[in-house]
């Protein structure tokens, strides 16, 4: 689905100014990875937006100085993406160039209408308009928009916009956070929660049971059954993904893209913040994970919106049990480097973004009205536990690589967008810092990462920060005419699930 992005036919060879290395020689151009190259196909031209709210007005010069001293040390922020005309396969290369920050840091003069001082709407419209345009290929594909306008969410707002070919969400968040420092200790880097390996736990359990041969036999049987279950789930999931990419579509709903629908040229972005401590409380009560709770809240919010729409339209015979509603979920396939490692690599001028490395998993969504709101979380836990015990994400990643080798970039770019367009929702979430952070003495209020260019009518991102979690919802305004109502449904669904959890005590 095109959203005003440049066609590949419009991407011409660019004459560049080469950067010099430490020895005075020209830096060598690097070949772009196949996955990153795929993001330049017209039907898969994605941009990442990081919406950052601040507790104080922004000092533009201080922000520029931080970018100059940190981000520009990374080659992907100071390199052009150019097609290699000497290569018949039209591969792209990273060509180092000199960056003029004034071309990338944009400070618009936003003035509210005297008759309407709704600054929230002013900022929302500005971000929405960004989704209708692409970044000029004659410069590195990123920019920073600084809006020194007070809203109900923050004293000022920044929008970091990057082309998805620069890296995936996990690597970009780690890189961005390497520019921040703890508000309580300006010399310390932020802390990210990294999942610990369960291998040590398994070894300790095994050693504790060595005295019993029956315990050992039982453990081996459990592992054997786990392997059989893993194989079975994978054999079921991968063909289902291929079927979805080819022909299997979700049922028609207020969220799905109608057949023959011409997308609007821009998206709407809304974000709502809830308490992370309350989400952890729900997680502990339901014996689930934070991801399960986030997905449960998402299911509850979508259910509220759908049922209200059908009631308004008078469709009383609507049966959600017969609705096929699914989400395409992005799964990171590599371990987190961590903010400390990224910061050290930047200081040493080494490459820290490893491109895009993720798989896509398709999960069913429950669009129902449950008497007990906690059932949304329990449904999400059952679904995610099942998907965790499958190799679907890795198989979809390798399938994309295989299609690239067999049919080129256009073949690979046809798989994921078709799978996305045949599902209802695009869903992802990332971990933010555990404590409050600042960038050049600007304390951060919230982080709301999102995307545009996807072929679904709705995308939901969740991002944690300190004691809060922000839902960022991107919708096609031609499909969802009231995005703020949908955002409010997330808050109301969270409240109802929280009250149901509290009632257990």
Walk me through this protein's architecture.
Helices cover 37% and strands 19% of the residues. It is of the alpha+beta class. The chain has two domains: 27-180, 2-Layer Sandwich (Chloramphenicol Acetyltransferase), CATH 3.30.559; 230-434 and 454-501, Chloramphenicol Acetyltransferase (2-Layer Sandwich). The strands form three sheets. Strands 5-6-7-2-14-13-8 form a seven-stranded mixed β-sheet, covered by helices on one side. Strand 3 and strand 4 (92-96) form a beta hairpin. The N and C termini lie far apart (49 Å). Residues 1-27 and 195-210 have low confidence and may be disordered. It catalyses: a long chain fatty alcohol + a fatty acyl-CoA = a long-chain alcohol wax ester + CoA; an acyl-CoA + a 1,2-diacyl-sn-glycerol = a triacyl-sn-glycerol + CoA. It comes from Nicotiana tabacum. Residues 355-498 form the O-acyltransferase WSD1 C-terminal domain.
Topology:
Blueprint: E1 30-31, H1 34-38, E2 47-54, H2 60-69, E3 79-83, E4 92-96, E5 105-106, H3 119-130, E6 142-147, E7 156-163, H4 169-177, E8 181-182, H5 199-208, H6 213-246, E9 267-275, H7 276-286, H8 290-312, E10 326-332, H9 339-347, E11 358-364, H10 374-388, H11 392-421, E12 425-430, E13 437-439, E14 442-452, E15 458-465, E16 468-476, H12 483-502
CATH class of the largest domain: Alpha Beta
Number of helices: 12
* Unreliably modeled segments: 1-27, 195-210
Name the average pLDDT: 82
The sequence of SSEs as H and E is EHEHEEEHEEHEHHEHHEHEHHEEEEEH
Structural class: alpha+beta
> What's the Cα radius of gyration?
23 Å
CATH superfamily of the largest domain: Nonribosomal peptide synthetase, condensation domain
Output the CATH topology of the largest domain. Chloramphenicol Acetyltransferase
Q: Based on the coordinates given, report the CATH architecture of the largest domain.
A: 2-Layer Sandwich
Sequence of strands across the biggest β-sheet = 5-6-7-2-14-13-8
Helix content: 25-40%
What is the beta-strand fraction?
A: 15-25%
Shape call:
globular
């Amino acid at each position: 689905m095109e959203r005003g992005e440049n066609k590949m036919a419009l991407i011409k060879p660019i004459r560049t100014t080469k950067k010099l290395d430490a020895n005075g020689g020209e830096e060598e151009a690097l070949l772009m990875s196949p996955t990153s190259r795929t993001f330049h196909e017209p039907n898969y031209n994605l941009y990442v937006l990081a919406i950052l709210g601040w507790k104080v007005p922004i000092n533009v010069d201080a922000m520029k100085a931080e970018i100059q001293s940190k981000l520009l040390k990374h080659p992907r922020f100071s390199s052009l993406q150019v097609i290699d005309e000497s290569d018949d396969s039209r591969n792209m290369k990273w060509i180092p160039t000199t960056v003029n920050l004034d071309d990338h840091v944009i400070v618009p003069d936003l003035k509210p209408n005297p008759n309407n001082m709704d600054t929230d709407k002013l900022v929302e419209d500005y971000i929405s308009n960004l989704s209708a345009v692409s970044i000029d290929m004659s410069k590195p594909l990123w920019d920073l928009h600084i809006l020194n306008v007070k809203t109900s969410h923050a004293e000022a707002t920044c929008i970091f916009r990057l082309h998805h070919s620069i890296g995936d969400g996990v690597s970009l968040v780690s890189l961005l956070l390497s520019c921040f420092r703890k508000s309580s200790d300006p010399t310390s880097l932020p802390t990210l929660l990294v999942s610990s390996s369960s291998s040590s736990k398994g070894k300790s359990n095994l050693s504790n049971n060595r005295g019993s041969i029956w315990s050992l036999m039982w453990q081996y049987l459990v592992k054997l059954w786990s392997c059989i279950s893993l194989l079975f789930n994978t054999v079921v999931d991968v063909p289902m993904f291929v079927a979805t990419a080819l022909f299997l579509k979700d049922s028609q709903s207020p969220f799905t893209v109608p057949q023959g629908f011409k997308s609007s040229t821009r998206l709407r972005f809304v974000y709502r913040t809830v308490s992370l401590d309350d989400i952890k409380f729900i997680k502990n009560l339901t014996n689930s994970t934070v991801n399960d709770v986030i997905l449960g809240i998402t299911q509850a919010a979508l259910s509220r919106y759908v049922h209200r729409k059908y009631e308004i339209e008078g469709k009383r015979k609507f049966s959600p049990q017969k609705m096929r509603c699914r989400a395409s979920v992005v799964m990171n396939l590599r371990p987190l480097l961590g903010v400390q490692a990224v910061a050290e690599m930047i200081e040493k001028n080494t490459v820290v973004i490893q491109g895009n490395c993720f798989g896509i998993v398709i999960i069913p969504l429950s669009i129902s009205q449950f008497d007990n709101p906690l059932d949304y979380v329990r449904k999400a836990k059952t679904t995610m536990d099942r998907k965790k015990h499958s190799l679907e994400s890795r198989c979809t990643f390798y399938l994309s690589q295989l299609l690239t080798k067999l049919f080129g970039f256009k073949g690979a770019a046809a798989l994921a967008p078709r799978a996305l367009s045949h599902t209802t929702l695009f869903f992802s979430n990332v971990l933010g810092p555990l404590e409050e952070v600042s960038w050049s003495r600007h304390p951060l209020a919230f982080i709301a990462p999102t995307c545009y260019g996807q072929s679904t009518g709705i995308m939901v991102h969740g991002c944690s920060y300190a004691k809060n979690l922000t839902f960022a919802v991107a919708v096609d305004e031609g499909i969802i005419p009231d995005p703020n109502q949908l955002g409010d449904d997330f808050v109301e669904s969270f409240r109802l699930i929280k009250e149901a959890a509290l009632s257990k005590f």
